[in-house]
Amino acid sequence: MAVEELERRCELGQPGKPSLLTDLMGDPLARIRHFMSHIMLVADYGGEIVGIIRGCIKTVMSSNGKANSQTLKLCYILGLRVSSSHRRMGIATRLVKDIESWCKSKNAQYAYMAADCNNVPSLNLFTKKCNYLKFLNPTVLIQPVGRKQIRLSSRIEIIRLNPKLSASLYRHLLSGSEFFPKDIEKLLENKLNLGTFMAFPKDCTWKNNNTFHLPTSFAILSIWNTKQVFQLQLKGVSIIKRLACHGTRVIDSMTPWLRITTVPNVFDKFGFHFLYGLYMEGEDGGLMMKALCNFAHNKAMSDDKCRAVVTEIGQNDALKAAVPHRNKYSCKDIWCIKRLGEEDHMKWWEFDPTVDIFVDPRDF
Question: Is residue 295 a contact partner of residue 199, using CB atoms and an 8 Å limit?
């Protein structure tokens, strides 16, 4: 309960602006529990928990721009919180140092973290005090879940792939991406995975048991149900703005033919579906990906309290043009990395930041 209370006090947002509250629904380990090796450290000050940090160990594939991939053991650091009344006391720095020591004990080669590009205090802590380097600037794309089903083209076939075939396809198509998880099979078999789906033209003769003779145009993605891990709530919004947002939904329900842009109810607790493993190929690959994303939107409509469909892609990824999203809600992340222990020849942070990345939904 003390950890949850601290989470509530450390709402995400800029001072004087709306903030985003994260509800872990009674499980402070919810965001790291799906990794075999994980930890949460707390800072105690006079019998009161005033700081927390979480970390998990994962093994990923990396090509670093080369033809042959290799495996790397990483520690992902997340969920750093310090009570506002106990900041500027070195607590956050101590928590980072202690969790780095744990990372080293697990033989992690690198530690990395992610933060919103506007989270200056967190970025300054990691880059200026803890010697992390900024090395990726991915984009978070957000599509609110509307009130109406999106019509799907009758010329596009969408099928669900079983986990075994999905893993085989991902290893064939994306194992050269940075951060590709070595345990992809375990990820796809997780109960939070809502399925892997593939779209291709209906006149295609592809048989879904052939990994190496794929359609000339196709797209693939998987859906993760983050709502079962944590929920969000937007706070600090004026009653006038809340009424205006509610008004868009009322008007849309009364006059659907106007097709006005509505704002979903994000003022009560809500969840979202995260799209990962996105890949498209061929002349009509973009159309296939758009159809898959619209399919995911329609699927999210049937999930109570699911208010958005979210994904994260590399900063110059061609997927951005194919994935439906609203620029107003989308944002940029900054990933920072640090080599643990002795230097090596690889210098992972020097790879081309425009390369493809695989965003693990367990990290988000």
Answer: yes
List of E strands, 162-297: 180-181, 193-201, 218-225, 231-235, 271-281
DSSP 101-148: HHHHHTT-SEEEEEEETT-HHHHHIIIIIS--EEEE--EEEEEE--SS
For 191-205, what is each residue's pLDDT tens digit? Answer: 999 999 999 999 887
Which has the closest alpha carbon to 336: 139, 119, 114?
Answer: 114
Contact present, 276 and 222 (Cβ < 8 Å):
yes
* Placement of tokens 């049937």 in the chain: 302
pLDDT digits (tens, 9 = 90+) for 43-81: 998 888 889 999 999 999 887 655 567 888 999 999 999
Q: Is residue 209's pLDDT more than 70?
A: no
d(CA 51, CA 44): 7
Question: Given this model, what pLDDT does residue 315 score?
Answer: 77
Tell me what pLDDT residue 88 has. Answer: 87
- Radius of gyration of the chain, Cα coordinates, nearest whole angstrom: 21
Contact 173, 279 (CB under 8 A): yes
Q: Which residues contact 79 (CB under 8 A, 6 or more apart)?
A: 31, 32, 40, 52, 53, 54
Query: Does pLDDT of 211 surpass 70?
Result: no
DSSP state of 206: -
Hey, what are 88's tokens? 């500027």
pLDDT in tens, 280-327: 999 999 999 999 999 999 999 998 889 999 999 987 778 999 999 999
Burial (0-12, 13-18, 19+ Cβ within 10 Å), 173: middle
Residue 17 CA to residue 13 CA, distance in Å, equals: 7
Closest among 221, 237, 214, 251 to 322, alpha carbons compared:
221
Helix (H) / strand (E) containing 174: helix 163-174
